[in-house]
Every structure is written in structure tokens, then in C-alpha cells.
Amino acid sequence: MADTLEFNEIYQEVKGSMNDGRLRLSRQGVIFKNSKTGKVDNIQASELAEGVWRRVALGHGLKLLTKNGHVYKYDGFRESEFDKLSDFFRAHYRLELVERDLCVKGWNWGTVRFGGQLLSFDIGEQPVFEIPLSNVSQCTTGKNEVTLEFHQNDDAEVSLMEVRFYVPPTQEDGVDPVEAFAQNVLSKADVIQATGDAICIFRELQCLTPRGRYDIRIYPTFLHLHGKTFDYKIPYTTVLRLFLLPHKDQRQMFFVISLDPPIKQGQTRYHFLILLFSKDEDISLTLNMNEEEVEKRFEGRLTKNMSGSLYEMVSRVMKALVNRKITVPGNFQGHSGAQCITCSYKASSGLLYPLERGFIYVHKPPVHIRFDEISFVNFARGTTTTRSFDFEIETKQGTQYTFSSIEREEYGKLFDFVNAKKLNIKNRGLKEGMKQSYDEYADSDEDQHDAYLERMKEEGKIREENANDSSDGSGEETDESFNPGEEDDDVAEEFDSNASASSSSGDGDSDRDEKKPAKKAKMSKDRKPRKKQLETKKGKDPNAPKRPMSAYMLWLNATRERIKSDHPGISVTDLSKRAGELWKAMSKEKKEEWDRKAEDARRDYEKAMKEYGVGSKSDSSRAERSRKKKKKQEKQMKGKAEKKGAVSKSSSSTKSSAKSASESFKSKEFVSSDESSSAESK
């Protein structure tokens, strides 16, 4: 039996929405990677408690229950895959995959059971529906009634927002069944209640999205943003990634928090929380905890009393509470020495940061693109000026991002970075050795090294060595990519007619003046054979049989529409590339079938040519003879006219020799054709 099973296009139910991704079952456990967010769920084999197979809306589904009460649901399986999964569970997890169908009687009276983080409404022994309590945003009680409210699902057109349960009164003394029901729900629900004091508070921090100044209160399980107009409570479980990015001016820092699901304000969704700090701001921070509690909870990552730059303190506290690594820019350095590139996205100017495992753009709107979801990138010429270019990224889902108005000096650095990361560059294709080597089940923010930690260590060493020196070491940057000669060569390639023979602009204007007549001469030389070609094309008989197609062209005409339907919106060049790949991969037997068709077409062509030659020989010979006769007559008429002109000219010249001597001299350019012919006859 295989040690791993892999399934594509599997859907995971999270927060009421179905997120597609890839599922892998191995001896060690179950791994699911979300295609949209890149988030990875890893369930160890030792944690699995039960596996249930049942029929659902998207075919068949797999429900996994863990020993700590968590529930994972995966849909999109085929019925035929049950035996394979059942044998795998039995062999590697020592679990029996139980078949359990849902009750479809339509009754609304049953029993509610609480198991882990799941509320199950059952009729008899069969479940009717299940509610993950993490989807519950609020629980209210009334007389013999409990109301559950749910988080809104942004991806679904219709969302279930409320369910009410009628709880009949019981005769047991001292126990209120309604309150007992509500407490069971609230103990597992995703209801944020600000109980107790905050661990620490950061006052009046500048926030770019959502815009404004906010007080940030740090609680053990969530983050509270308190502003003048709005308040937001962000659970740490919704934080996907943390980014610490230096501004191009080297005086400010961005701290970016990626969120899924996003925070909401009316119809606006904020997937990123972006804070802007000045490097000069310092703070002394005291945590609202005992030293023993700090040591026990954070294990040396935080201390009770801390001091330093404000951005360092915020990022350090967030890293310890969220338990996520902080992503910083890697080894990329632009033309100006900065770790980012100035560009525009959707008519707003911002900064694009090439990271070790993706790109991030700040700030309006913020965009994060992982390398493993990129289909290809493209370097395009700028639409307004030749001093800039556009950088286009297309994902495997078909989404396209265009970052425009990038300075041309950044091209070399960015191209080298993309090449080093082995990304597919459009119009060049995947060359040998350029295959992407990303683990499809690796978390996108889990690098092999902690770049943030290394950066902090390096900065600490620099501070110790240069305690009295305020320079941050940015003076040693070199502009190796800037080469005036290469830039001028690029201009020549864009505008000269002969790119290979183009020279730099340093040769002066005289070279340009010399190139112009050469260009004209070249054009005049090229025109003559083109006229001949046109004449030959005009003389071609339209009734002649057409040449037969090759086997490949016959196959391409038959399969072109199918390729277009499989790849909607495919360009002509990409279609021909795809057709070439399919033809190359085709078996020998299928190719022989098209070779036979091409051979039949060739025989038909030869037969048609024989018939055409017999029928058209007499017609063509007659036409040729009449054409020659007409030309001969035209020549004879022209010769007679020239002789008459010569005789009249000679008689007139003898009579008026004195008169002609007094007239002005005519240059050769202005001698008429009649005069030249008379001179030749003399």
C-alpha cells in the first residue's frame, strides 16, 4: 500500500465557507493547504480520534475528530475513493472509517448534543445538521429560547446569520435548561469578551489601514484597536502573517499584520492591518503581569520591563503572542540601495517588496502574492514613457497584478531576483533547471531561517561596534547595475532599424545623420524585389489546386477549438506552444493516422494538378502568344514615334541655330525624353 494519498480540488469547511486546496494523507498525519491563503492545517496521526464518511452536497465528505475536540471537514471526494481511504486509515491510523448518513426526514424536533467544538442536532441516532461553535458570534437567551448568531461569510452569496432553538422546561430543581444550553455554546463560541486587564497598551499609533490613530490594547487572546470612531477586536487565531518592512526613506518602518478572516467596517473589508512607525520613536514598556507569569507564559521571549524603538517593541510583543515568525525583506537591493521598488498599482503609488517567498505591496491597496501561487511574471514596456516599465504577475487562479511606472534602472536587479527565485518569465518559458522547487504543502511564512532574528542580531552587533556613530551602514551601497553604455544600447535596440548594428549615443549626432541616408538606401533596395514578388503573385492562377497540408497542420485544424475551450482566453502564441507540446507528446500510432491523411491529401493534390495541367496548357499558351503579340506591336509603334520626332528636331535645329545659341543653357536633369532620343539618333 502507498505511504501517502494526495487529493486535489478538496474543499474544507471553515467559518461557513468552502475553501479549496490540496489534501495529503501520510503515515505522520493529515495535511491540508488552502489555495487562497496558503494556510496549512497539520493534524498528527496520534491526535486523530474518529473518522466519518458521509454523503454531502459536494459528493462525499470526510469528517475528522481529534482527541482535543477539534473537528475538520473535507468535501469533494468521489464515492469510489471510500475503499482506498478506509484501507489507509485502517493500516496507518488504526481507525475504522465509519459510514454515517445524515437524516433527511425533515423533522424539526430532536436532541442537541455537544461534542468538543461541535453542536449536533440529532433525530434518533442520525445527525440532521452540525454547527461548529467557532462560527457563533453571539448567543442570547429568552423565555424557553436560545438564539445563535453567526459570523458573516464574505465569500458566499447567501449567509446563515441566525438560528433559534426552543428548549422545553424541565421539572429538575435548580437547573435552568436555557442557561445550561447557552453556557455550553459560549464556552466554545468565538465570542470575544474583554475580561480582565490588558497585558500592555500602545497609545496613539498611526494606522494606514484602517486609516486613523488607534490605541492598541494587548489582551492574552485578542488585540483591541480603540479609535475615535471605530473599535476592532482581532483574535490572534485570525492572524496569518507578520511583516516588518523598512520604508524607502530609511526613517520609517511598516508593520503589517495579515488577517483571515478580515476585519469589517460596513461593506469594507480590511485583510491587512498596516502600522507606520518612525525609527526615532522610543518607548519603555512594562507588562501588566508578574515576572513569574511572564517567564512561564512567554519562556524568555518577553520580559516584564523592556525598552527600545517603538516598532521593535510592538513587533516583539506581537510575535510572542501570535507565535508567528516575522517576515522581513531578504537579500534584494534595488538600484538606489533600498530593499523595495517604487511603483504604482491601481493608480496609487506605493512600494513593492520582493521577499524570500513572495511579493508584498504597500499600502493602498495592500497585496501579498506567494511564489507558489504565481503562474508567470512579465516585464512589459511602460505605456506612457520609455523611462519606466511594468511588472506583471499572473497567478495560477488567473488573477493578474500590474505594477507600473517602475524606473528602468530597477530592471536589472528585479530580473536577477526573479531569475534567482526560478519564477517562470513570460515569452521565455521554463528553461532547464528553472523548475520551481517549492514544497506544495509547506507553509508560505515558514522559512528555513528566521530572517528577523538574524536582522536583529546584526543590528545589535552594529550598535555595539558603533555606539557613538549614528550611521546605519547604508553608505557602502554600490550601484553595480547602473551602466550608461548598456542603457544607451537598450535605446538603440528600441529605435534603430538594425538592432545588432546600433551604437551608443556617445558617438554624437554625426552618426545619426550618417545613418539616415543609409536607412533610405536600404528601403529603396528592398522595394524592387518586393515589386517583383507582387508581380509574380498577381500572375498566379487562382483556379490552380491548393497545396496539401502537412499531418501536423491537419491535426491542428481539427483540435484548435478543443484547445481554446480547455484554455479560455489563450493567446495565439500560447495556443501554438500548447499545440506543439501536445503533438510532441502524442503516441506514434496516432501520428501515423494523421500521416495517412496527409498522404491521401498529397495524392489528391497530384491528381488535381495533372488534370489542371492538361486543361490549362492550351489556354495558357494562347494567352502567352497574345501577350507577346501585344508587346511587339507596342514596341513598333513606339519606334515609329521616336523616328518622326528625331526628323522634326533635326530640321528645326538647322534653321534656328543662331536663335538657340542665344537661349539659356539646359542641364541634363531638364532634358526631355524626346531631346535625349534625338541626340542618340544623331
UniProtKB/TrEMBL annotation:
Which stretches are tagged as biased composition: Basic residues? 517-531
Example of a GO biological process term? DNA replication
Q: Where in the cell is it found?
A: Nucleus, Nucleolus; Nucleus; Chromosome
Q: Where is the composition biased (Acidic residues)?
A: 474-496
Q: Which residues form the HMG box domain?
A: 545-613
Q: Does the keyword Transcription regulation apply?
A: yes
In terms of domain of life, where is this protein from? Eukaryota
Q: Indicate the principal place this protein occupies in or around the cell.
A: nucleus
Question: Which residue ranges are recorded for the region named Disordered?
Answer: 458-551, 609-682
Q: Which UniProt keywords apply?
A: Chromosome, DNA damage, DNA repair, DNA replication, DNA-binding, Nucleus, Transcription, Transcription regulation
Q: Which residues fall in a coiled-coil region? A: none
Its Gene Ontology molecular function terms?
Answer: DNA binding; histone binding; nucleosome binding
In terms of SUPFAM superfamilies, this protein maps to: HMG-box (SSF47095), PH domain-like (SSF50729)
Bias type Basic and acidic residues, positions:
532-544, 634-645
The record ties this protein, via InterPro entries, to:
HMG_box_dom, HMG_box_dom_sf, PH-like_dom_sf, RTT106/SPT16-like_middle_dom, RTT106/SSRP1_HistChap/FACT, SSRP1-like_PH1, SSRP1/POB3, SSRP1/POB3_N
The record lists the membrane-crossing segments as none
DNA bind region: 545-613
Q: Name one GO cellular component term.
A: nucleolus
* Similarity comment text for this entry: Belongs to the SSRP1 family.
**What functional role does this protein have?**
Component of the FACT complex, a general chromatin factor that acts to reorganize nucleosomes. The FACT complex is involved in multiple processes that require DNA as a template such as mRNA elongation, DNA replication and DNA repair. During transcription elongation the FACT complex acts as a histone chaperone that both destabilizes and restores nucleosomal structure.
Q: PANTHER family per the record? A: FACT COMPLEX SUBUNIT SSRP1
Output this protein's name: FACT complex subunit SSRP1
Organism of origin: Bucorvus abyssinicus
Q: What is the lineage of its organism?
A: Eukaryota, Metazoa, Chordata, Craniata, Vertebrata
The gene for this chain is Ssrp1
